[in-house]
Amino acid sequence: MASQIPKKPETPAAPPATGSDDAVVLERRTQRVQPPQMFQVVLLNDDFTPMEFVVQVIQEYFSKDRETATQIMLKIHLEGKGVCGVYSRDVASTKVDQVLQAARNAGHPLQCLSEPVE
Ligand code: TYC
Description:
This is ATP-dependent Clp protease adapter protein ClpS. The protein is of the alpha+beta class.
């Protein structure tokens, strides 16, 4: 006759997670959508790109009037860099490409980049 293996004592089933009375708790969560990250397009100073070319680039690609474009160019010239505009990621990236292409076509070393706004 085979020896009987003692059965494990049955553990009682866990009580329902909803607590007593089968109550269902609905949690209210407010969904908050963050505004999209914005990117500033920055021009860098160099010793070779003519001031007039930089002013024209700022006017054409960043829709600034001549006065504002000149002020931005002078700020870059004096401080090393300057913000020309703030855009969504894709628009900023396109602006960088356009400025770099225009500079290369004209034979100037002008540098342009985009970076997230704090
Ligand atoms: N420093 C340049 C010069 O003296 C002018 C310049 C300004 C170049 C802004 C680049 O992003 C620039 N000709």
